[in-house]
Batch of 2 targets.
Target 1
Amino acid sequence: MKNRKHSGRMSSRKKRIMALEMFLGLLLAITVLAPIAWMFLSSVMQSVDLTAKPLKLIPETVTFERYRQIFQSTTTSDPAFVFRIALKNSFIIAVSVTVLSLVIGTMAAYAFAHVRFRYKGGLMMLILFTYMLPPAALIIPLYRIYSSLHLLDKKFPLVILYLSFIIPFIIWVMQDFFGSISKSFEEAAQVDGATRFQTLLYIFLPIARPGAVATGILAFLMSWDEFFYALIFTSSLTSKTMTIAIEEFNGKFTIDYGMISVAGILGSLIPVLITVIFQKYIVMGMTAGGVKE
Amino acid sequence: MRKGLILALVSCAAMTMAVSSPAFAEDVTLNALFMKQAGYSEEDVTAMTQAFTESTGIQVNPTFVAYEELAPKILTSAASGGYDVILGDCIWPAQFAKAGLVLDVTDRVEALDLDDIYQGALDATRYEGKYYGMPWLNDVKYMFVNTKLLADAGIEEVPTTWDELIEDAKAVKDQGICEYPIAACYAQAECLICDYTCIAGAFGGAFVDENNEPTLNSEENVAALDFMASTLTDGLCNPKSLEMIEDDVLSTFAAGNAVFAINWTYQFASMNDESQSSVAGQGVITPIPGTDKAESATVNGGMPLMITAGCQHPDEAWDYMQFLASKEMQAEYCANALPIWKSLYTDEGVIEKAGAEVVAASQIQFDYIVNRPMVPYYNELSTSMQSEIQRVLLGELSAQEALDGLQETALSLAEG
Amino acid sequence: MRLRKEEERYALKLISPSMIVVFGVIIVPIVTTFIYTLVNIDPLSAHKGEFAGLSFYIKALTSKVFWEDLGRTLHFTIASTAIETVLGMLIALLLNQKFPGVKFLRSIIIIPWALPTVVNGSLWKLMLNGEYGVINALLVRFHLISSYQSWLGNPKTAMWCIILADAWKMTPLAVIFFLAALQGIDNTIYEAAKVDGAGAFRRFQAITLPALKPTIMVIVVMRTVEKFKAFDIFYLMTRGGPANSTKTLMYDTYLQAFTNLNYSEAATYAYLIALVVALMTLIYVKLMNREEA
């Protein structure tokens, strides 16, 4: 908007700059969209065309057969069927993780930001350390524990497992966010006779909502994205997640690039929609919260 | 450790007595781990399992995972008994046996008609004179040749030695028919060692001697590796082979961009499937070429069934394995995997279902099966071999240097 | 004093659900894994069950393999973090301008980030394929290379392929962070600087960069930690190959545990990874505090 004031002889230079900006913007748009467009194209190309050399960039015939297979297959051994169920599992798991981690993690984050208690710093460090531990460090003993408690290959135990690394993340980001909210709100509310929990519920949470939405989206994506734990802890349709189903298209005996592309498109649909729709929140949350001190 | 094992065996035996009456067997439920998308299909295994439950009353829950997931699943679960019966790769029994993950089934195996089972398949389940599994999925590698492209170069005969193959490959390349006539799976993965096993075997080499002592830097092995590297430097073997695994080789062949490819049996059906192949009907399956040292050599890629150490019902588990590997089942479902039983190969029904070309090729190829070293440290050795052999193929290292180093690695691994 | 106690009780109520979930899941595995690093539990070892003291740590730290793994891990971590930060900032500066289409760009820039890692890895593996990848097809068509190249089969390029795939997915996150920070800068400062005759570069150096510093710090800290532990993308794209050129510490840990059955070695690696990550974070925190002081 600062540019509006200038006019006259500057405008030709302005035009040139704008042309450059548009050119760079176009380049950026291509870089961002081309791989996704190619993934879509691969998902509707015939298998024979996908491995042709030289590759035809615009296929002569397209097929939506693979999509039909995913939505309509009823054979339990069909990878397409497996993928559909896995997509559902992933969704149930990710939503549960998001809701639970937000509720549980936000409370703790608030405590870390605004309530005084002993060993606060040490505890925070410990939480951060758990977040840093690579899952490979925990997997073998974890498997033994889960197995002896009969928690393998079930959705809810996987949710708990995901919570164990997503909650630390939420605490880390949200406590920063709560910290930026002035303590005077709390004091004012207490003068008005509100209990501390009421203050948290009615004063802090509404202010913190953009941050909560932003971290909630991150929690959803982290859980939707998770691969390593799912690789070890799921095996049947009861709990197999989308990431594992995609990986299974990619094996020693079957690299079905057409199917991988379909799965990629469908597996990305939900997170992409959520992020694009809630983008304002992500930006707002980050502007008001952790990033800007 | 040994005490624990004995205790486990005793308790297993006690359990066996307790469940030996059929009334008890009804209550037994077994968990079994299988592989999806290769060999017997999920439908096949499910149908076999149903037939087993119908005839014995024993319930079985089969789980199907990708090949790549098998090892992590077995290793994490074996100790806690998540699965009773597992399908494993033929390179795992020694490691699993030493680690105490699977049960010794020697007495049970020796009670079978061993003369009727292919020796190579049987050998792969043996470690220190004991059997740890039941051969089931029977597979070896073959040579696949696109005879149409070969005929375009004026060659009518399929090569039977590597020298002939190189000559043919040169002719095909020089005439511009195919830029890289050979496609191979030389990615940093087990498939590289499988191919090297075939070629080293054809050159008369072996990775271990009869006492399982490493012999990696033998003259023959060096010559074989030098040969593999030369196919790359001469531009006969596709340079992208270094990123290829089995399925990439198949798709390259199926796209008509290779004349020669070594692969498992499954390539035959896929390359003749018009929906994914543009060379349907153009290729043949034939034994892997040899040299003057050996007529042919292939690698055992079979997969045995094993009983985990944590299994509570080893008798039922064994019954189930016997049922799956029975001649009846193997004959019935031979369209997706060849039987382990020699006598089935003369069965008209089997020949028809499995395909006459495949059966014919297998009857020659099965005589030249080489097992990858059946030593507990094999997997660790293999990971070292994969990267070192790739360095040779990339020209970073000479075959002699690489294999000398690997020999040392193997010796130190053998010591533990 | 009574107030203080009450405060602590309140904090306990708020943080206990988080602590129960997080530590309930991981405390036993963390301790068990630590014991694994001190006692030989490798099922194949002749010394199984023996107390090993620090010998696994010493063995790791004196082995060439460990340092090579670390080198490759750092290569990936540093290169991709640097690319994402610099590129993220430049793109954010572009998107902070006004030109036709910028709104559209701002809304699509986030899409790659929303793609699951598994999808991203499979997509790039497909596009980079040496035999029928679209990238080869395009480069040949535009005569940038004369024949198809094996990008993932060449030790000189494989790591850069992974860095490319990772940067494509993760740069958008940096862009979003930087955009948020840029929009928080008061425009009047720029106007004043302009009046004072400061050029565009000088303005960037004096105003923009200092304002972005906290954001840079956050991105660098967050991304290095994540990247150092990255596993999925290596598992999906190269599995450590070719010729070990993409074998990172994390991938080696997986290999040691699940292929070689060297549990104790894997546990030691995992702890060393956590240690390095913790150390890096500590250094960053120190640096950040010094900046602020």
Target 2
Amino acid sequence: MESLVPVEDRGGPAQPLLLASGLRKHFPVPGGLLGRSGKVVRAVDDLSLSVAKGETLGVVGESGCGKSTVARLLIRLIKPDRGTMVLDGDPVDEPHGITVNELRRQVQMVFQDSYASLNPRLTIGETLAFAPKAHGLPAAEARARVRDLLDKVGLDPTNYAERYPHELSGGQRQRVNIARALALRPRLVILDEAVSALDKSVEAQVLNMLVDLKTELGLTYIFISHDLNVVQYLSDRVLVMYLGKIVELGSVEAIYGDPQHPYTRALLSARPSMDPRRRTKEAPIQGDPPNPIDPPSGCRFRTRCPFAEDVCARAEPPLADTGAQAVACHMRIAGSGHSKAVAT
Amino acid sequence: MLLYALRRLLYLVPVAFGVSLLVFALVHLAPGDPISAIVPPDAPKEVVDKLKEYYGFDKPLPVQYFRWLAVTLTGDLGTSIGTGRPVAAEVASAFGNTIILAIAATLFAFSLAVFLGTSAAYAKSRIVDRLVTMISLMGVSVPHFWLAIVLVIVFSVEMGVLPPMGLGPENSTGWRLDWPHLKHMILPTIALSVIPLGVVTRTVRSTVKETLSMEFVTALQAKGMRDDQILRHVLKNAAPTCLAVMGLQAGNLIGGSILIETVFAWPGTGFLLNSAIFRRDLPILQGTTLVLAGFFMLLNLTVDVIQTMVDPRIKRG
Amino acid sequence: MAIQSPTVDIAAPLVRPTVASASRGYWPSVGRRLRRDPVTLVCAGVLLLIVLSSIAAPLLGLADPYKTSMIRRLYPLGSPNHLLGTDELGRDMFARLIYGGRLSLFMGVTPVVCALLIGGILGITAGFVGGKINMAIMRVMDVFYAFPSVLLAISLSGALGAGTENTLLSLTLVFIPPICRVSESVTTQVRGFDFVDAARASGASALTIVRVHVLGNVLGPILVYATSLISVAIILAAGLSFLGLGVKPPEPEWGLMLNTLRQAIYVNPVLAALPGVMIFITSICFNLMSDGLRAAMDVKA
């Protein structure tokens, strides 16, 4: 049906590559007399985002804030409870749009655990050839593509195609995972903590390779990580998540240079600095994130926020544009009722 | 905790429904008409039809099933074709005898298994470990009905020290806790306990061994705790897994005793089932199977709930 | 019969990472380790001997296993012309023990193979598809689990009536639920690994994913479990024949022989115990083989 050539750009550079709006995923919590407690984990709650062509969108947040669920929703490994997605103008999984399978040709993902994401019974070559073959590429062409892919990620094809995952180091395995994500010539690659498990030196090599691949292949990245420094290095725009919701979204300069949300500020101040003069005396965030089964009313961050007031418990702050970035905080909304709210 | 027990009990309802369907089907799996087991082949047609009507065999199967279920739920399991006595009474007296044997075998097998398994896991010498592994392998590999025959050959035929069959002395009217009756129990108990002995020894050995290799044991040793105190901690950690296996084995003993009861002519449910099969006494076959399956289900439920109580790692609230 | 599900240990490296040498796949390395395991090799040899001799029994120049003789009944072991004596009807024991392996092995292995096919497909389907299909399949299995396995086998055979086919049928029914449960649990585990998600994200069909990514990882544990059931099946099949529910006389079968020779325990006890020895040896060998296979495949019980 296809010889697996890269999909052409359609809407031009101004049209977002991926638009997701109102994505929601609640996981039911087992329990109760009949095995259903009626409670849900609000993993992702009405989240909207857009990814421009050729950019890298960084996604940061504490573990358990729903970052990975977002990744899996975007590639439809889990079905959202509600929300829509549009890929370069085409609605996904809708009557006049493209199918989930077409979405997956153009959007691919690299997983965190380099070992669990490779089938231990298949050679590297077999793993890489799987997706192209499943899409009908003849065996000979698939073999050629495997060589090409290994070459691209800096692994010698003659040496590595016949090896098994357990014979590779963590960095080499992650290179294979990246190669697999590229096998279908996608346009958007979601990197879910893709370098987090690697040693620092190896991490740097893989990051540089990712940057090179992006230019070479004209890719767009969604880069999910809890490592703020890596996100800063790689991203054009950054999205900060807290308990399944976006709290701040803006350019990397704005987010890192002038964070607006108390949570973003706390995250940034908590990061270790090598420069003694830049070390903060500010107290890091207190405690653990609240249980996503029963998130706090109003603003979800209020239980850990030093500036929380009555209004924060009453109303949920919308994601409001403040110029350089969008922030979901009552202090940034004029007339919200917060004593520190900006003047109109 | 209570909620979990309740939920398990509730969950048992559909399973019990399925079990009742299967047990009901037993009669209809039988070749030919279920009625043909009752009447001689040369019986006149009118008599056969009368009997069919009497037993309700002329109705469609779903009707028959719900009728049977309704009657069964009142505790009426029908009438034995062979003896004419109520099935419930026959099964009840046999069930008592089976339970006595099962309890004896369970106690014997489990205490020996825990001892053997723990010593093997702790053993410094490979010989002890090998020996225990051998014993447990023998336990799961030996055809236990054959072992029963061998025991009879050795202890009854050759040595003449233990009785080869029966519940007690010839004039015995039922099981009593006295030496002549206990003597009759020894061989069946041993024969019945070999399989659970093998399986449980194996489980205890591997679970204790695994627990011993955990880091908390090293920490306790480093703290200077005495070995017997450490053993308590280890056994506490190994208990849930072992309990689960023991529960299943205890239940299987009830089923497995059929062959042993036949060899020793022990008047339990297995013996009853076996004779019912050969007399084609289908009501007895059905009733015995139902009672045993019901007991097995309740036993599994109990083990499950106990395991949850013992193991803090399982949260099933 | 303990029903314990094995676990799939993806993280355990099979072979130590070697320096750029020729790498081995999973199955070759299993084979290599089996060849280095003397216990398993001996057991395989003994089983091979029993299987081959029972298959080739007519070619071995044995006495006629059906030929009765009223005057030569219950000869002791070591009698001239009758190495292992004669049974209660004067038939040659050696010949009957060899011929008996045919039915005994057949009735033990066949139900497990059939149950492996049916239970394996059901379990893998339930595990991979999950959701309502899983519920439906596993709840039906739960009903069978509510019976002790021996009771289920005997009640089914008892209702169906004696005979080889009925015994095979009821034994197969007995072994489907445990195999299904094990298959379901290992498949559910494998399905949770990221490489299955990656395969799904590649847009391959469910069948292709199962074939390429799931089967290779679950077949090992399922096979190991199934081989451990063979010894149970052989004992159970012999037990059914022993009760008179399986093979019908005069066919030679170890369980049935054990039954008919019971009348001889006062006359010739050693002879009466012989068929059981055959069952015992076969079952031990299958158990040890299963253990060896488990170790070679690195499946955790």
